[in-house]
Amino acid sequence: MIETTEDLSVDPSVGGPSPEPAPLAPPTAARRRLSSWLAPILLAAAVGVGVWLTAGGGSQHTVSAPVPPSGYEVPEGATVVSNSAQLIAALAGPQADIVLADGTYDAPTYFADSNGSRLYAQNLGGAVLTAGLVVGGNSGSGGAIVRGLAFDVSDPDKVFQGGELQTWGPAGNDLQVLDCTFDGHGVIPIGLLASTEQGLVAQRLVFSHFTDEALRASDDETVAYHAATPVIASISDISIDGVTRTPPGSSNGTAEAGLFIGQPVQDGVRRIRIRDVSLSGIETVNNSWDTTFSDLDIDMGGADQTAGTGVYLEHFSRNDVFTDFTITGVRTGFNGEWDDGTTGNGAMHDVTIEYGTVDSTGSTVAGHQAGVFLDQGSDSTTVRNVTFRNQNWAGIGAYLNTGSNSFGDNTFVLSPPAVDTSTGHI
């Protein structure tokens, strides 16, 4: 069974989704668009399971589907707005609960919330923003909430720094983004751009058609392991369909990833579904450490595939765990970046990859295929209870690694002339 509720105790005033969500008004055109995006996700959630898989050793477990955006109750006594002018005026005032009535909210530039206001669509998906939203400022305690909105921006001049929803500064701390959808129409770089990550809660979100990343959360300031750095609270129930540039792959490795995570995530990254992303489904980087990534359903076999990497572990990924996953259509399921020729500068350290399946069926990217490839300098990796299918080079490649690797209880169903494990370079 998948979970149907989330613990939102980061901000007690929010509460979880009601066991019996409040009745919603008849669907508007905007909400009908929302329904069309959510149809495959709602179907998966209805049956309760994303994917069944059998790991090495014969144990059967599930990869749970993301919970889709869900109904909620709006706060009593909130300020209700019904047009863009009223929304701008409400955001300019002190921190408040603001409810957006059904309709389209547009502006010549992005909307700005510098006071930590709490924004709710009156009906799930009924309030559509065709200009971006910035939550942040140089002062303030943060704590903003964005819930139930549909971001539908097709003009890059109406977003800030490329993000349909962007955060910055102290006023962007402890932001909760819940039950929202984001569409970038193939021209907006990023859906949720968290430049301030401390306390971020991102739950039950749907992303479509971006050029760089669907969700990017990193301050881009690498520090020593366990030194002070912002900590994300939770990222869960995320569905992504479409991250590519024109032509696909033209970012040359600098973008075109589904999730880009550069900070520790206290409660983990859970129930993630990714489709039609050009380069990598998930990229860990910067200060990604002590984080569990679980229930990952990644298919890189879409029409825009150019690199076909399920999870790309960059500098630096430390003591992360990837568990309960199915990764298909990949040239490389997990790829650890090399040490740039500097001893001790490997990208990944003490990473565990367990209980899942990596299948290269559906990959059209030329070259050798590997379920896991640990490049030069990768340090002390554990790979266990993973089933590798249809790779043409190796199930696991471990080239000039350091420390002590542990590979056990894995199953290999490979394409000739592939070998189970190789110490060569892919």
Walk me through the topology:
Blueprint: H1 29-47, E1 51-54, E2 60-63, E3 79-81, H2 84-92, E4 97-100, E5 103-105, E6 111-113, E7 118-121, E8 127-129, E9 133-136, E10 145-147, E11 150-152, E12 163-168, E13 176-178, E14 181-183, E15 190-194, E16 201-210, E17 213-217, E18 234-243, E19 257-261, E20 269-277, E21 280-284, E22 288-289, E23 292-299, E24 309-313, E25 317-318, E26 321-328, E27 332-336, E28 348-349, E29 352-359, E30 370-374, E31 382-389, E32 394-398, E33 406-408, E34 411-413, E35 419-422
Task: Please describe what this structure looks like.
The protein has about 425 residues and is mainly β. The protein has one domain (about 30-330). It has two helices and 35 strands. The strands form four sheets. The protein has an 18-stranded parallel beta sheet that branches. A twelve-stranded parallel beta sheet has the order 6-9-12-15-17-19-21-24-27-30-32-35. The protein is elongated, with a radius of gyration of 21 Å. The two termini are about 40 Å apart.
